[in-house]
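Annual report, structural modelling task.

Input specification for the magnesium ion complex:
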Amino acid sequence: MESLVTIEGVSKSFGSGNKKVDLLDDIDLSIAPNQLIALRGRSGSGKTTLLNLIGALDQPTAGDIYIEGQPIGNYNEKQRSNLRQSKMGFVFQSYGLVPFMTVEENIEFGLRIAGVSRGVWKAKIKEALELVGLSKRGKHYPYELSGGEQQRVGIARVIAVRPMLILADEPTAELDSKTGIRMIHIFQELVKNRTTTIIMTSHDPVILEMIEHVYALEDKKIVYKKNEIIV
Ligand SMILES: Nc1ncnc2c1ncn2[C@@H]1O[C@H](COP(=O)(O)OP(=O)(O)O)[C@@H](O)[C@H]1O
Ligand SMILES: [Mg+2]
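The model returned the following structure:
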């Protein structure tokens, strides 16, 4: 099967001189479509950095990333932005909600940016809020919600769009375990319907155990850890 995301010889460093931090060293990874993938690794191991590279939010120091076979390394800012808007959805660790928009408006904003036709916005917002269990919070502003609720709005905003590729950074970090498991079940449904690929990060053993494909970032390298018992 054709690879959806191909990471080829990717290295990433920040800074220079004696402040240089090498995070990723010559990483190769190929991700087929319609999978739920988890990335784990200790704090500071480069999980967010790798998601940002795949999401064309940042560029590798060396190597190439291909999305559907297209190398994105030489894309200009406009092309990168088009790629993100047409094919990707992000669940940020810090939620990334627009503070002066209600929950519904935040989700609507995501649909608008993704170019989803206006006629279906209302139904999609309703469905996404039901899925994450926040139907009663649509008119609330982010500051009126708990961290966990804001995190679920962040998830609702991307599942409403159903982009080809969802990049979710610690999407269950602020959730109690029952709600976290519920969100992973939603992710599994999306993937099973064969419309979406999800790459998420987590260091929660309960969550990781639910996910078939787990990769670990260890010593700047990526290691496959399928079904490994994590202690
Ligand atoms: N823009 C940046 N400039 C300098 N250092 C950075 C930058 N982004 C991340 N880092 C450093 O890279 C390391 C890994 O970051 P990150 O990818 O956020 O790890 P993780 O998500 O696994 O916790 C951190 O120690 C951080 O200080
Ligand atoms: Mg991180």
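Residues 14-15, 21, 23, 41, 43-49 surround adenosine-5'-diphosphate (ligand 1) (CB under 6 Å).
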